[in-house]
Amino acid sequence: MQNHTTTFAPMLYLDNVAAGIDYYTKAFGALELRRFSNPDGTVHVAEMSIGSALFRLHEEVLKDTEFSPRTLKGTTVIIGLLVGDPDFVVAKAVAAGGIEIHPVQDYEYGYRQGTIADPFGHHWEIEKASLVKAVLPGVNV
Q1: pTM of full prediction above 0.70
Q2: Residue 123: which domain range?
Q3: What is the domain-level CATH number for residue 85?
Q4: 117 vs 77: CA distance, rounded Å
Q5: Within a domain: 94
Q6: What is the pLDDT of residues 105-122, one digit of tens each?
Q7: Fewest CB atoms less than 10 Å from the CB: which of 8, 11, 25, 100?
């Protein structure tokens, strides 16, 4: 029997995957693992990682039911990125072209976090657990 590890790999829809590769590399130090191009040379899909976290970028195809935040004029998800230094990562993401939504600060539930919007409209909550405490009897987070 094979040993399988469960992981979570979100797919982000963008109107320009090549620009996404550039931004995520500059903002988060992401590595491009592979890409699949269209016949015209534009990027259809890219697979990237930030540390051990895998994610994919996919070009928006208007015949599908998956859309970029720009098309929706909003987002339905916030991507949590746990890092060692949220202040540094938020500053780097903003310098690369992101927009700060909420500044980095400490919260009573034990996290230091801030939120940015990337240039494509996806929201990222950059965070670090600074003090973890039980929130439900018998459940530790």
Answers
A1: yes
A2: 11-61+69-129
A3: 3.10.180.10
A4: 11
A5: yes
A6: 999 889 999 999 999 999
A7: 8
